[in-house]
Amino acid sequence: MHATSTAIAPASSTAPARPAVTELRLSAFKAHRAAAFRLAPVTLFAGASGTGKSSALQAYEALALLGAGAPLDAAFPDPVGCVPERAEADPEGRRGFRIGCTVDGPAGPVRLDLAVQAEPELRVVGERLTDGGGRTLLTTALRDPGRRTVQAEWHTAGSVPVTRAPLPGDRLGTALLPLRVAGKTEGQRHVLAAAEQVIVALRSVFPCDPQPQRMRAPVAAGDGRLRRGCDNLAEVLHRTRTGCPRRHARLAAVARAGCAGPVRELAVEELADGAVRAVLGRDTAGGTPLGRLGDGELRYLALALVLLTGPGVLAMDPAAEVPHAMQTLTVLADGFDRSLDRRQTRELSGLAAQICAEGHMRLVGTIGEAGARAARGRAGVTVVDLNP
After folding, report:
1. What is the residue-averaged pLDDT of the chain?
2. What whole-number distance in Å separates Cα of residue 381 and Cα of residue 388?
3. Per-residue pLDDT tens for 256-306?
4. To bridge 315 with a disulfide, which of 52, 191, 225, 324 should be the other Cys (CB 3.0-4.6 Å)?
5. Residue 42: what are its φ and ψ, rounded to 5°?
6. CB 387 within 8 A of CB 66
7. pLDDT for residue 60 is more than 70
8. 10 Å Cβ neighbour count for 200?
9. Mapping DSSP to helix (H, G, I), strand (E, B) and coil, where does residue 3 land?
């Protein structure tokens, strides 16, 4: 990021203090056309199979990767699969898709819209960054298909109202602006503030998909950062138990609410070979190793741990240039209620609402029909029904 940027300045009385994605737009993406979804602190997409629950999260994660500087092929490993069904190619054989988002924060609402060509080759064909007043801050267009670049224009004001330059056709232009804009004029600083607000919000994302089959065995002690699949759950519990006793005690209370049988504590045993394993301490002597728990209990504990920790414990790379207090972490959880029973879903959605109400964390997930019935009515939880 640009060292002299004023993107993360003290919030005004009307602007949120921490950047957050508040709308996801799927203008033409897989099963979605002209779709726009407002995102609350806790948003769960519900609907029958094939209604586009998972694809909404895939689009969000792709934007997050692009915001972190990843190339298009990393964000869209199957770009043709992102093209809406029955979308016809133009006379040159080109087909593509369009997604976007709105990020609220100190710079006000900022819209990012992206058009991607999937065939005959993957590339950006258009990008637009717009502020809350409707002013275009950045626009790109594919002028020459024979070149690997797009032509970009960004607002600068001053003696030169617009700056034009080529940008790579396989990157998000917004993520490149802090390296291109000097920030010398008011207009340039406005563009930087808007671009960096979007980048901070998109980079502050942790996709989470706990894999119970990989969480059962003891694990070697390491850096204690929870991975996406939560396979090193025991290692992270070892860290929270010694380094975050208050959070660990809260997690134990969550375990008591959602796990079968009496639960006195969440303990961690150090084995002779240096590995660690987590144990549910019971009221009686001994305990139950987490490896003996069912898939639902393991997923329940893993997601609760994610909600009760933060960027310092999760294996992610937030915007290091911005203090954690000025960032909002967004957890993406596809299959939020997978393998969970109704009680666990209610407890976990209630915990999410409680944590996210504090403003430092948000949750966007997908949920099945039964889970949606359990989550509906929970204060602070928004269920988006995608059924026709």
Report:
1. 89
2. 21
3. 999 988 898 898 999 999 899 999 998 776 789 999 999 999 999 999 999
4. 225
5. -125, 115
6. no
7. yes
8. 25
9. coil
